[in-house]
Protein: HTH lacI-type domain-containing protein
Organism: Dyella thiooxydans
Amino acid sequence: MTIKDVAREAGVSVASVSRALNGTGGVTAETEKRIRDVAARLRYIPHGAARSLITRRTHTIGALLPDMYGEFFSELIRGIDLAARARGLHLLVSSAHDGVEDAAAALRTMRGRVDGMIILSPRADASFLHTNLPESLPTVLLNSPLRGPRYPVLNIDNHGGAHAMVRHLAVECGYRDIALVAGPHDNYDAQQREEGYRAAMAEFVPGAALRILRGEFTEESGYRAGCEMMASGKLPRAVFAANDMMAIGCLLALREAGVEVPGSVAVTGFDDIPIARYITPALTTVQVRIVDLGRSALERLAALLDAPDQATPPEADTLGCHVVVRDSCGARSPGKTSTKKAR
């Protein structure tokens, strides 16, 4: 069935059918209802590409992520998708874990298919965005060091969250020997969390030796870090892993070696992915409202789509986080403790 068939059956012009089905007005409510009834009876489905040529909108949002593995990304996608569906928008997701060319290819594939982009990628520096994104495409960046009026940025308070966790371990739990399982060296989140760890150690455990092991934000790298600690012959009193997946991997390595957690070593993480509260012992972690992060990103992008000529804010917004105290840190009373004030 074509739009001409609908117009003939409804006794109206093709233009009237187009206006009614696109919701652009110009027809009476009675006529619109008749057209929609005919379209439903004939099972007419508007051609997406043709509709886009008329409306200049695809009603689709693109999301470029560094990966889609793990609960953090599934929760982030869920937050974006929930907010998109509430606005009648659809979501097109791609990942770019194989490098700059992979990220560029993903953006080229989405060009012309999406009305706007949400990008979380360590590859997305100013040069990359200038080369691969059309100037007119509304874009929101997540967890990015970029500043300026071109792109709205929404960040997690990584520094404040890491600072608060080390404060909890040092001040409230009384630990001095606190190791960090850091994330990838080229990752902005990992860099900010490491800076927060270093600042808090200098403030709350001055003179203590820093012990930093490098991970990749995966369970496997956390497991390797746990094995590395045991191979060194000296376990730290507490481990702060820069994300929950590495903390879970580290917990497994310690458990396999017969090390008591939290009796011998306290283990903590960052993100508060859903599984964190269900493992044994339940994981003390920095809680990020991951779904809210995705939802907020979509809401900022929707505002750009609705008012494309409005100037974007020059400053990045920061999503606060807080420490959730559970069994794995050895604190006497599980609960919540707030981060230091977001910078």
Q: What stands out?
A: The chain has a mean pLDDT of 87. Residues 116 and 138 are 5 Å apart (CA to CA).
